């Protein structure tokens, strides 16, 4: 590698030699392919443009082991580094670990380096395979297409993926960095040491990195984060949302051409794949699952793999017919809803494909999945037991269950399916879930809430029943259950974005009723003694109450922002409240607040503060500032950051229509900007998927009918399906919701 003498060169392997480049000594003059000719050309060009030319150097790296070419990486720049190491528990070797970045941010890489040093020996122990390279570097880039990339020996990624300022970063940013680091380190085995045979097996890389990196391994480092429980919100919910539309795709999907590759880096390859693996791990037991994974890896080192290789490994460890159980989860589109009908001393369960529109055709409904029902029951003495052996392998079956006592399917919400109960049973489940010493775990309660809303969206039950369930759980203490409720209530508010002021006002009143008591209990101050759950619940309660226009919370956040605005001192804004404080300041402010946040965006103290500033800029309700913000996207925003502006503007009911018009007017510019970029599919979804009328779907399809959509045809089809599902939910629920809220207000005497 040839570079300027004052720069740092990096690649997958360590440097063998580095010396000053001397043209006559290092390369024959008459060799048209030589390094010398190349260096001379670079020298002539750069020295003509540079007032202070530097000399050149040649860097040579060790030869790599056998590896896939998409993992090769080279980097050059004015980098500094932090260094650590870990001792291999298998060989005793010491492996150097480094973080590289530009000098101004190198101090913020210490946390990522520490996480890397902690997870690497755990991976070796779990997989019983030593990390084979002599070093592991990570390079932090100021502009990066994806979040991060697992180049073997030289992980790369954007600033928000690796930087933490211990004094200024919030808990959410810390979690993101830790999970990204662990996810990319998981790829050193899943993807690098063993690589999928072709892109149709992408899930073998990404599903495993999601489950191993973001749950199993990171839980051993940060058990207080309860990442396995959080998986239900972070991944299972996302996977089921995407997989509930007709235009979804199987986890293992044919990739006939290059245009398809970028499109399958989605919630199905990552989150659904990880969810199916998690379901399998719970069914066979984590120890057996990991033993099978280790067998799989050991047989495919420095080679390619397909799905059957994995099934063979886990089958060898468990003695089970894994393909028989799992193939339809991987090879078929969609997932099931299990409908429960109660008999005197038994239940009858039936499986059908779930669609968010609630209308699967006979053709849609061909698949029979093997479903671990994981039935939780409570006996007369209050003893809780879980039967994990029952698997539904046919369309319908009757199972002995005492229906006079509490029971629940999908215990722990480990299965990749929804469960539909009778309205009477839903009420009983809610009452049991609300007890101080409930038989239902927090994971059970998360699943109950999620299923209630999603099944209402599909028309299987009423949205009012889901609202009643939330009201029953209003004294809930667990942050993760509140997170589920907040997400689902946010979806309800989202589909009513163009409904009457009265209906939207009543929804906000109900939200204030839920969140204000939490704010009063938890307050606004954060302490080093706070548990992660307390920190996150306080943050959620304050941000949700503010979004619902709770006057006392708005006043508090605006006061803290005003102090920052007047003094430049942000010490009164806790790191975990930066996002909501910035957003409220702009949403309920004017030009002065917008300009203050714009300055933060241009000179952010941390990557998470920059993200908060971008999202806050999109929260303005001033038409002039909305137009200015949209124009800003094309003139002042890095391509990697455009997504934040689109996501934020799409969630602002005053900006959404303007955003769509802006996108259509500048369509050719955006297509040029995102040419060859992973993110174009997200751009399409942010613009259109949350619209709520069939007319919107018609206009969207009309706009794209004469355009080349080959690079985002999946995202477009999924967005159109989502619009139709939203429209159906809105029509089914608006009178039901309005009636329930009216009755609730009368009972609450508001």
Task: Give a brief rundown of this model.
This protein has 750 residues and is α+β, with helices and mostly antiparallel strands.
Question: What would you note in describing this structure?
Answer:
Helix 11 (286-300) crosses helix 12 (307-318) and helix 14 runs parallel beside helix 16. Strand 9 (148-149) and strand 10 form a beta hairpin. With 750 residues, this protein is α+β, with helices and mostly antiparallel strands. Among the domains are: 1-63, no CATH class; 79-188, Neutral Protease, domain 2; 195-331, Neutral Protease Domain 2 (Neutral Protease, domain 2). The protein has 30 helices and 21 strands. The protein has a 5-stranded mixed β-sheet with strand order 6-7-8-10-9. It has a 4-stranded mixed β-sheet with strand order 19-14-13-21. The longest helix has 36 residues, at 713-748. Helix content is 52%, strand content 13%.
* Strands ordered across the widest β-sheet: 6-7-8-10-9
CATH class wording of the domain at 195-331: Mainly Alpha
* Mean pLDDT over the residues: 94
Name given to the CATH homologous superfamily of the domain at 195-331: Neutral Protease Domain 2
Architecture blueprint of SSEs:
Layout: E1 2-4, E2 8-11, E3 15-20, H1 23-26, H2 35-49, E4 56-61, E5 74-77, E6 80-87, E7 94-101, H3 110-127, E8 136-141, E9 148-149, E10 154-158, H4 159-162, H5 171-187, E11 194-196, H6 202-216, H7 218-221, H8 227-243, H9 258-261, H10 268-284, H11 286-300, E12 303-305, H12 307-318, H13 322-331, E13 336-342, E14 346-353, E15 371-372, E16 375-378, E17 384-387, E18 391-392, E19 396-400, E20 407-408, E21 418-420, H14 423-433, H15 442-457, H16 463-472, H17 479-495, H18 501-522, H19 532-547, H20 551-567, H21 578-587, H22 591-602, H23 607-617, H24 623-636, H25 642-650, H26 656-665, H27 667-673, H28 680-688, H29 694-704, H30 713-748
Parallel strand pairs: 7-8, 8-10, 11-12, 13-21
Antiparallel strand pairs: 1-4, 2-5, 3-4, 6-7, 9-10, 13-14, 14-19, 15-18, 16-17, 16-20
Helix pairs in contact: 3-5, 5-6, 6-10, 8-10, 8-15, 10-11, 11-12, 14-15, 14-16, 15-16, 15-17, 17-19, 18-19, 18-30, 19-21, 20-21, 21-23, 22-23, 23-25, 25-28, 28-30, 29-30
